[in-house]
C-alpha cells in the first residue's frame, strides 16, 4: 500500500523500500505532516536511508539525477520519445528546404554519407560514440542505442543537405553505421577459423601412428616416438628399429603386458652411434630372417652404461663382473619373448626396466638345446658369445603405480555371492517369540573336551583293574 501511495503522490516520495521507522523520519523531514518548510533532511535520515537520492533538500525543483518522472516511465522510454521529436524536426526542416529549392529553382547538391561525415565531423572529433549511445546510466539528451533508434523510428533518414545543422546523435549514428560496415567486411575476409562454429580439420594419421594406437588399445602400452625418426629422412638404424617393431610388435607386447599387469611405456633406446653401427654391420652380413626379438632384464642403474657401450660380455678387460652367475658360460643372457617372466626376475628399480633386444640367430623356436656357433640354447633362454649379435632396441618400463620388484595384477571386483530372497510374511501371521530368561549377563562356562575326559577315565579304569 505504501508503494501505491508513492505512485499516486506527485512528486513521488523516494525511499519507500526502507524500514517503517526510517520512513516516518523521512516524511517528517520532507514537511509532509505540517512541519516547518525550512526543516530539511536530518543527518540521521540521510545516513540511514537506502535511497537518499540527493542532499540538495533546499532546492524544490531538483528531484535527483533521474528526473521527476522516473517512476511512471523508464529513462529509455523518455530517450526514445525525445528521439522521435528530433526526427520529426529534421523531417520538417527537410521539407521546408525542398520547398525553397523548388520555388527558387536552385539545385542544392545532396551530400552522401561519407562526404557529409568528412565535412561535419571536423567539428566533432572529440565526440565519442560511447558518450552518445549509452545504457541506462547515460545523460537524457541522447539516444540509448543505435539499434533502439533504428528499430523504433518509422521514417528513414533522408540525405542531409548542407544547410541543415547536424545533430550530435546523428553523427554518432553515422559513425556507428560506418564501423558496422567495416566490421562486416573484416568478418567476410577473415582467414582464421572460428573455433565455436567451425571444426579444425584433424591431421590424418600415418600408418605408423595407427599401428601404435592399435598396440595401446590391445596391450595397454604407450609407445613414445619422434616424428623425425618415422620420416623418410631418418637414419638407417631408425628405419630398421621401427620396422622391427612393426614385425614383432604384437608378439613382444603381449607377454610383457602380462608381466607388468598395468599400463607401461615402450620407447626407443638412445644408443651410441658406435653401437648402432656395429649392429648394422652384423645385420648386413646375415640374412634378413635371422633378426629375432629377445628380452634382457637388468637393473635401472645399468641403463646409462648399456646405452653408451651396449650389452657387453663380463670380463674381457671391460670392468664388468659376473653378478648372477654363469652356469652356461660367460655371455649375454637373453630370454625368449614368450618367457618374459624369466627376464622380469632380473629387472630391478622403481620402473622395472626391461630391454627389448634385436638378436641375430640362425635357428628359430626354442625346441633346440645345445650349442650352435656363437649361441648356446637352454630351456627358456639363449646365451650369445659375441657382442655385435645383440643390440637393445627398445626400453620397456612400468608406470609409477606399479610395485617395485613384483608383478602387479589388475584388481578384479569380488564375485557376487548368492542372492538371498527376502521372505515376506503377511500381516496376519504373528511370529511367537520363545519364552525364556532375559538377556544373559554372565559369561558362559568353558567348554570341556569330552574326548580327552573319556580317554582319561578309560586310562584310570585300566590302572585300577591292573592293580
Automatic annotation (TrEMBL):
SUPFAM superfamilies: ADP-ribosylation
Name listed for the protein in its UniProt record: MAP3K2 protein
Organism: Symbiodinium pilosum (Dinoflagellate)
Encoding gene per record: MAP3K2
